[in-house]
Write a structure and sequence with these properties.
alpha/beta, six-stranded parallel beta sheet, 7 helices, 12 strands, binds NADP nicotinamide-adenine-dinucleotide phosphate
Length: about 260
């Protein structure tokens, strides 16, 4: 009997995990995306796109599709879907394991200010105009309209439309990973004084943090949200090791 895996994705790790599982005769694997980005990166396994309709909808999906393992490989700031996954796994009686990158830790030379939310980050920027680098999702940018005195450099995967109602903003539409040398060059070229970011963890967006340390630039980091307490691993390799030891399903589900 094969395991039927559903990966909740939207991260580089989810894609990497899917690539490892594609073609593995022990599993059939499907990847789920929220559908936020206009042209999602190509994926190595079949993909479904869009919300499930809360925990209840996800539980029904797990049952209907005969899913035998649910993997939550969503971004650490995507708290709602992780809560839904925990609830749905319980309701549908499907084992759940999360793939969660550990957060970046402060190193000597880091000038971090940790804040509870993006809104608090706006206040932490202060009243005097500064040159600010924003690396947040499009949905989280609106609070910065309350601080139009700053000059913003805003980087996102999709264009920010409509643009922010602030007089000084430059938009960069790019998808990571971002190398430290490129990030350092960008910070210098743009004369950035402060970065506002999430503590995403992992290597692909760490370049700006390392670059800021080298240049003595302040970083305002929005703290991670609380996530449900479920079994979890930190890397794709650990997830593969976990899957190596998972017993075969007793019977095909959903039949
Ligand atoms: P969220 O607030 O936790 O989720 C909001 C709703 O979006 C969920 O309730 C669910 O809708 C739907 N959803 C989220 N992820 C889904 C998935 N993988 N498959 C199907 N439906 C999903 O999430 P978010 O912060 O908006 O993030 C959306 C996606 O972008 C996530 O998959 C995440 O991995 C990725 N992402 C997020 C961030 C971030 O900083 N938040 C950064 C990089 C990538 P229903 O309730 O209708 O099922």
């Amino acid at each position: 009997m094969k395991h039927s895996i559903l990966i909740l994705g939207g991260t580089a790790e989810a894609r990497k995990l899917a690539a490892e599982l594609a073609g593995d005769p022990r599993f059939t694997t499907e990847l789920s995306l929220a559908g936020r980005t206009r042209a999602p990166a190509e994926q190595p396994v079949p993909v479904r796109i869009g919300g499930f309709g809360g925990a209840e909808g996800l539980a029904a999906y797990l049952r209907d599709k005969g899913i035998t393992i649910l993997i939550d490989a969503t971004h650490p700031y995507a708290a709602q879907i992780s809560r839904n996954a925990a609830e749905a796994a319980k309701r549908a009686d499907v084992p759940l394991i999360a793939l969660r990158r550990s957060p970046w830790r402060r190193l000597q030379g880091d000038r971090w200010i940790e804040v509870a939310s993006v809104r608090e980050a706006v206040t932490a920027l202060g009243k005097s105009p500064r040159k600010v680098f924003l690396t947040l999702g499009r949905q989280e940018l609106l609070p910065f309209e309350a601080a139009p005195q700053h000059h913003y450099v805003i980087r996102s995967v999709d264009p920010v439309e409509p643009p922010l109602a602030v007089p000084h903003a430059i938009y960069l539409t790019e998808r990571g990973p971002f190398a430290e040398t490129d990030e350092t060059r960008l910070l210098k070229e743009q004369g950035i004084e402060v970065i506002v970011a999430k503590n995403s963890g992992g290597p692909s967006s760490y370049g700006k943090i390392a670059g800021a340390r080298a240049l003595g630039i302040e970083v305002i980091l929005a703290r991670r949200p609380d996530l449900p307490d479920v079994p979890s691993v930190e890397t794709v390799e650990e997830m593969l090791a976990w899957l190596d030891h998972v017993p075969a399903p007793l019977k095909e589900r959903g039949e």
